[in-house]
Specification:
Length: 552
C-alpha cells in the first residue's frame, strides 16, 4: 500500500466519504441559504462557484489535510523557483516564468531566466508589429494577410484555442490557420485558398523533430517553392520558426534571425505563453498577448499566496481528487457556454491527460490509486442536445465545469440571454434533479399510473459541478482561467505523487509507426508483428492496390 492511501488524511477522507456519500446537495441548499457565499471565490472579474459539489463544511478541511500531507506548499514553491521537478527529464518546469510580469529573478542552473524571456518577448513584439502594420512584406512586396501555424500537440492546441477564444481582439486583415494533422487533407484544405505572396508560415515545434510538424512544414515549403520558381531566397520572408533547436531550424532552411526561442524548461503543453504563442500574438497583437500573460500572472500570484481554503486552483484540484479517488468518477466534462471557447476541452485534454495519465509514482513504483481523469466536453448548448442525457440520467458520475461570460461580444441580446440561461439552468438541474413526487405532480392524471414513464422522467440529481462566470472573455480573463486549470493539474499531480511534466507514454507508438511505415510501401507479405498487426498491414496493402479511385 502506498503512503498516500495509508495516510491519516486519506483514511479520514474515506471515512468522510462513507458518511456523506448519500448527502443531498438539494437538502443542503434548502438548509443553508449562505451555501453559495461559503463555497464561492473571486479573482478580479472571475467568479468561481463550487457550491454545487457533494461537500459539507468538513470536506474541504479534510481535502486540504491531504494536500498538506503531500507537502503541496513546498512543491508549489519548488516549481516557481526553478527546481528540476520534472525528474525523468531533469528539467525545471517554468511556464510561470514566461508570464512573470513582476520580473523577479527565477534561476535555472544558477542563471536568471528572465532576461532571456524578456528578450524573446521583445523580439515577438517587434516582429508582430512589422507583420501587423504591413511593414513586413512578402517576396512580391505585398503585405502578409494569412498566417499558417504548423505544429502539433502543445505547439498547436493552445495557440489554436486562444486564437479562437480571443477572435474579437483579432485584426480583420490577418487570418490565422492551424495545421497539425499528418493527414494531408489538413494542409491541403488550408492552402487551397491561400496565395504564397501573402502567406507567412510559422513552424512551431519545440524539438523541431516531431514527424507531423516536420513533414507538414516540408510540404508547405515545397508548396511555396513550387510557386516561386524554387527561389530559396524568398523563404526568409515567408517562414519563421519557433523551437529550442537552432541546428535543426538551420538545417530546415530557416534563417535563425527568423527563429524565436523557447527553452527545455517549457513543457510543450504549457508553452502557449512562450514564443509558441507567436501566432496568437500575430492574431490579436502583442499588447493583448501581454494581457493574456498578465491574467495568468495574477492567477499564479493567487495560487502562490492564497491560503488553500481560498485558493481557486487548489480547490479545483482537490474537488477533482474527491470525485476521482473517493467517488470513483472516471471522467470530467468541460462545458463552456461560449462559441469562442470551442477548442477549450481539446486543449485541456492534452494539458490534463498528457500530464496526469501516469501509473507509476515519482519513485517508479506502481500506484494503487487512480490518477488522471478522462477530460472531455464541448460547447454547452451543443452538448445539451448530444450527450447531456447521460450526465443527467446515466449511471456514471461525471463532474462538470460550466463556464460563461456575462457579456458577449456579439450584438444579439436574445441569443446571449438564452445562452446564459442554459448555462445557469444545467448546473441547477444536475444538482436538483426531479423527484418522483414532482414527476407525478406535473403529469396529467391519466398518466400517473404509467410507472415506466414516471421512472424515465425522474432525475436523480445530486450531480456535482463548478461554475466559472466572468465579466467578459478578455485576454486577461482567459489568461487567468488557463492558469487555474494548469495549476489544478499540478495540484493533482503533487497529491498523486506523479511526474506531471513528462510524457513517455506517447513514445512507443511513434517508434512502432516508424517501423511500419517502410513496410507499407514494399511488396512483401509482412510477418514480423503479432498476427492482428500483420493482418491489418497486409489487408491495407491489398486494399490500397485495389482502389480504383486512388489519386496518388
Ligand atoms: O508527442 C507528444 C508531444 O511531445 C507533446 O508533448 C508536444 O506538445 C508535441 O508532441 C509536439 O512537440 P514539439 O513541439 O516538439 O513538436
Amino acid at each position: 500500500m502506498s503512503s498516500l492511501t495509508t495516510s491519516k488524511a486519506w483514511i479520514a477522507l474515506q471515512e468522510h466519504y462513507q458518511q456523506i456519500q448519500n448527502y443531498s446537495m438539494r437538502d443542503a441548499f434548502a438548509q443553508d441559504p449562505d451555501r453559495f457565499n461559503k463555497f464561492s471565490l473571486h479573482l478580479n472579474d472571475i467568479l468561481f462557484d463550487y457550491s454545487k459539489n457533494r461537500i459539507t463544511e468538513q470536506t474541504l478541511p479534510l481535502l486540504i489535510g491531504l494536500a498538506r500531507h503531500t507537502d503541496l506548499e513546498t512543491k508549489i514553491q519548488e516549481m516557481f523557483s526553478g527546481v528540476a521537478i520534472n525528474t525523468t527529464e531533469h528539467r525545471a518546469v517554468l511556464h510561470v516564468a514566461l508570464r512573470n510580469r513582476s520580473n523577479r529573478p527565477i534561476f535555472v542552473d544558477g542563471e536568471d531566466v528572465m532576461p532571456e524571456v524578456n528578450r524573446v518577448l521583445a523580439k515577438m513584439r517587434s516582429f508582430c508589429h512589422r507583420v501587423r502594420s504591413g511593414e513586413w512584406k512578402g517576396y512580391t512586396g505585398k503585405t502578409i494577410t494569412d498566417i499558417v501555424n504548423i505544429g502539433i500537440g502543445g505547439s498547436s492546441l493552445g495557440p489554436k484555442m486562444v486564437s479562437a477564444a480571443l477572435a474579437p481582439y483579432s485584426s480583420p486583415n490577418l487570418n490565422v490557420y492551424y495545421v497539425s494533422n499528418i493527414d494531408a487533407a489538413d494542409l491541403i484544405s488550408t492552402l487551397q485558398n491561400l496565395s504564397p505572396e501573402t502567406t507567412l508560415f510559422v513552424i512551431a515545434s519545440k524539438s523541431f523533430g516531431t514527424q507531423e510538424a516536420m513533414v507538414n512544414a516540408k510540404s508547405a515549403q515545397k508548396w511555396f517553392l513550387d510557386r516561386v520558381n524554387n527561389d530559396r531566397t524568398t523563404i526568409a520572408k515567408h517562414f519563421v520558426a519557433i523551437s529550442t533547436n537552432t541546428e535543426l531550424v538551420k538545417e530546415f532552411g530557416i534563417d535563425t534571425d527568423n527563429m524565436f526561442e523557447l527553452w527545455d524548461w517549457v513543457g510543450g503543453r504549457y508553452s502557449l505563453w512562450s514564443a509558441v504563442g507567436l501566432s496568437i500574438a500575430l492574431h490579436i497583437g502583442m499588447d493583448n498577448f501581454e494581457d493574456l500573460l498578465q491574467g495568468a500572472f495574477e492567477a499564479d500570484e493567487h495560487f502562490c499566496n492564497m491560503p488553500f481554503e481560498n485558493n481557486i486552483a487548489v480547490i479545483m484540484g482537490l474537488l477533482g481528487i474527491w470525485y476521482n479517488n473517493f467517488f470513483g468518477a472516471q471522467s470530467y466534462a468541460l462545458l463552456p457556454y461560449d462559441y469562442s471557447m470551442r477548442y477549450f476541452s481539446d486543449y485541456l485534454q492534452q494539458g490534463d491527460m498528457e500530464s496526469n495519465g501516469k501509473s507509476v509514482d515519482m519513485n517508479g513504483k506502481r500506484l494503487d490509486y487512480d490518477t488522471g481523469q478522462i477530460i472531455w466536453g464541448q460547447q454547452g448548448t451543443n452538448g445539451q442536445h448530444a450527450f447531456y442525457q447521460l450526465i443527467h440520467q446515466g449511471t456514471k458520475l461525471i463532474p462538470c465545469d460550466f463556464l460563461a461570460a456575462a457579456n458577449s461580444f456579439n450584438d444579439l441580446p436574445e441569443h446571449n440571454e438564452i445562452l446564459v440561461s442554459n448555462f445557469l439552468a444545467q448546473p441547477e438541474a444536475l444538482m436538483r434533479g426531479k423527484t418522483q413526487e414532482e414527476v407525478l405532480h406535473e403529469l396529467p392524471p391519466e398518466q400517473r399510473n404509467d410507472s415506466v414513464l414516471v421512472a424515465a422522467k425522474v432525475f436523480e440529481g445530486n450531480k456535482p459541478s463548478n461554475c466559472f462566470l466572468y465579466k467578459q472573455l478578455t485576454p486577461k480573463t482567459l489568461g487567468s482561467l488557463l492558469a487555474f486549470y494548469e495549476h489544478k493539474i499540478f495540484v493533482q499531480g503533487v497529491i498523486w505523487n506523479i511526474n506531471s511534466f513528462d510524457q513517455w507514454g506517447v513514445e512507443l507508438g511513434k517508434v512502432l509507426a516508424k517501423v511500419i511505415q517502410p513496410e507499407l510501401s514494399n511488396n512483401d507479405v509482412i510477418k514480423s508483428h503479432d498476427c492482428s498487426t500483420n493482418g491489418l498491414i497486409n489487408a491495407y496493402k491489398k486494399l490500397r492496390k485495389a482502389c480504383p479511385n486512388k489519386t496518388s
